[in-house]
Amino acid sequence: MKFFPVLLSFLLLSVSCATSAPVSFDGFLQCLTRKTQSTLPIFDSIYTTQNTSYDSILHAPMPQVKKNSTTGEKTVEVSFIAHFLGSSDKLVALLNKRFPELGIQSTDCHEMSWVESIVFWADYPLGTPISVLLNTTNMAVYSKGKSDYVKEPLSKDVIESIWKHMIKIEKILLDINPYGGRMAEISATATPYPHRAGNLFHVMYYTYWTEAGINATNRYVRLTRELADMMTPYVSKNPREAYQNYKDLDIGVNQDNQTDFATAAVYGMKYYKDNFARLVLVKTMIDPENFFKNKQSIPTLPRVGDGYIRGILPLIESAIG
Ligand SMILES: *[C@@H]1O[C@H](CO)[C@@H](O)[C@H](O)[C@H]1NC(C)=O
Ligand SMILES: *[C@@H]1O[C@H](CO)[C@@H](O)[C@H](O)[C@H]1NC(C)=O
Ligand SMILES: *[C@@H]1O[C@H](CO)[C@@H](O)[C@H](O)[C@H]1NC(C)=O
Ligand SMILES: *[C@@H]1O[C@H](CO)[C@@H](O)[C@H](O)[C@H]1NC(C)=O
Ligand SMILES: *[C@@H]1O[C@H](CO)[C@@H](O)[C@H](O)[C@H]1NC(C)=O
What we know:
Blueprint: E1 6-9, E2 11-14, H1 25-35, E3 56-67, E4 74-85, H2 88-98, E5 109-112, H3 114-121, E6 142-150, H4 156-169, E7 172-178, H5 181-185, E8 201-209, H6 214-231, H7 261-272, H8 275-286, H9 312-319
Parallel strand pairs: 1-4, 2-4, 2-5
Antiparallel strand pairs: 3-4, 6-8, 7-8
Helix pairs in contact: 4-6, 8-9
The structure holds 2-acetamido-2-deoxy-beta-D-glucopyranose (5 copies).
């Protein structure tokens, strides 16, 4: 880890239920259900397992450009943020066993409720009251995001090129999510999300700016695309995979009110790999008129004449069991 100009260890800790017993992941889910309105079932969207060894849901190194306050020199600072569902004692013990070189102490941890962690992820300083979430007047912040999956370690030279490019853009952060572990155990076809075993990490390039106007937009979008172009040799290929939740209109976009199959196949394979075909079959069965759509939605099967190819529905039904 010597190549990071500044290493800032920061760990966020989230416990929703105060309890003296060790907090298990299943226990956390029960707690979440108890504390969640039944009309908003967060519970359903969280992957659960009998094995309670899985309790860290996020651990993201986050490189960002920082200015040295005395010299004015720009550098890249890397924050390691872990969002752990359990007590700080348990986390400190775990990290000191696995990453003793980090020297994590309980003072690096902040225990908070789930809703307080939402305020944290929205980039407010620690201690900001949760009532800030009621403020619906947002500052205008423009952004451009792109994402990549990395399967081979990056060399120091590549990391240095990334740093240089980031310093040129300045208003950018990289959000890096490590893979392996539980992510590698889940089959690529178990859910629509296909990016599982074989990935070292996922990276989001996120450029954000507040200057209004087309010139600022053009500059930041161009620089972000240049960074992604520079990364081409070092990331996933055929297809160059992308994360559907970080919508990137550079990888294909439909006109209003239509979902063109050939256009969709390009972004669809990047977002869903082989699962794309099954998603098309499901879409064709459930929403044949393409009522639900956005510029990067799943297409229906192309129509032939005034209908689908004869016998397609039984085929779909058997394909999705
Ligand atoms: C829990 O982990 C053990 C050991 O890795 C494994 O044998 C078992 O199948 C797992 N159980 C579940 C429900 O995933
Ligand atoms: C700022 O630069 C000075 C002089 O090079 C250095 O001693 C100091 O550690 C730097 N501060 C940070 C936060 O990097
Ligand atoms: C709400 O947010 C806006 C934009 O950040 C800010 O200008 C305003 O003061 C905030 N209002 C309150 C009541 O905090
Ligand atoms: C945008 O850039 C062009 C070309 O450099 C310049 O002529 C124009 O005045 C700029 N517009 C704004 C709003 O800054
Ligand atoms: C798309 O469809 C909506 C709803 O039918 C309609 O209001 C809108 O004008 C259409 N847009 C275009 C560009 O055709």
